[in-house]
Design brief:
It is built from nine helices and eight strands. It is globular and about 60 Å long. The longest helix is centred in the C-terminal third of the chain and has 13 residues. By secondary structure, the chain is of the alpha/beta class. It folds into two domains: about 100 residues, Periplasmic binding protein-like II (D-Maltodextrin-Binding Protein, domain 2), CATH 3.40.190; about 100 residues, D-Maltodextrin-Binding Protein, domain 2.
């Protein structure tokens, strides 16, 4: 998103401020009157909730699909589903499935492999994917489930090891965006970003950072 904002600002001279939190928390803040102009979420549920609440201008849209990976900062570990049951893995970082879309996808994976009950004593739960990433990066957890975009970012690229999760084991992580009703000038600028994120340039950036854009 930082790269998208930088590119958008270069093209339009419209400056953006990024506020990062879990989709559930941001949606609650918007419904309580927070002065945000756009909600970009890793789950269409939340932009649709804003739209259904009458707080949006126009309908939400999917701009990409996220991908889930297993990631470790410990280079002596080779991430895999089978590894999760090993005794040397004592902490597994996952995002809260109730507030974070990647957490919901992780829950799907664990249920697919019948691991949810077996591994629940190892779970270290982050309220957002960002907090989950901190657990793995600091090695407070030996391994964790996160977004592919995390481990392809400039800050974390080539740090630790990761393995992609079979996308058939979790529901599509539909990245959604919606424009929130504010003043006319803010709405105009927000609608420009809403249009930009579906542009060829933005879609290429999203692909570079581990999103699928062809569906």
């Amino acid at each position: 998103m930082e790269f998208l904002i930088t590119d958008f600002t270069k093209k339009t001279n419209i400056k953006c401020q990024l506020v990062v939190s879990s989709s559930g928390k941001l949606t609650a803040q918007i419904k309580a009157g927070a002065p945000y102009h756009i909600l970009a979420s890793a789950n269409m549920k939340y932009p649709e909730e804003i739209y259904d609440s009458g707080l949006a201008i126009g309908i939400p849209k999917i701009y990409a699909n996220g991908k889930l990976v297993l990631w470790t900062a410990n280079t002596n570990i080779t991430p895999s589903i089978a590894l999760l049951k090993k005794d040397n893995i004592k902490h597994i970082a996952i995002a809260n499935s109730k507030t974070a879309p990647y957490g919901a996808a992780t829950k799907d994976v664990l249920e697919h492999y019948n691991l949810n009950e077996i591994l629940k004593h190892k779970f270290v739960i982050g309220e957002s994917i960002s907090q989950t990433n901190q657990f793995v990066h600091s090695q407070a957890a030996e391994i964790g489930f996160t977004a592919m975009s995390t481990i392809l970012s400039e800050k974390l690229e080539n740090k630790g090891k990761w393995a992609a999760i079979d996308s058939t084991t979790y529901s599509p992580i539909k990245q959604g965006i919606v424009v929130i009703k504010q003043d006319l000038e803010s709405n105009r600028k927000a609608k420009e970003f809403y249009a930009y994120i579906s542009s060829k340039e933005a879609q290429l950036l999203l692909t570079k950072f581990g999103y699928s854009t062809h569906e």
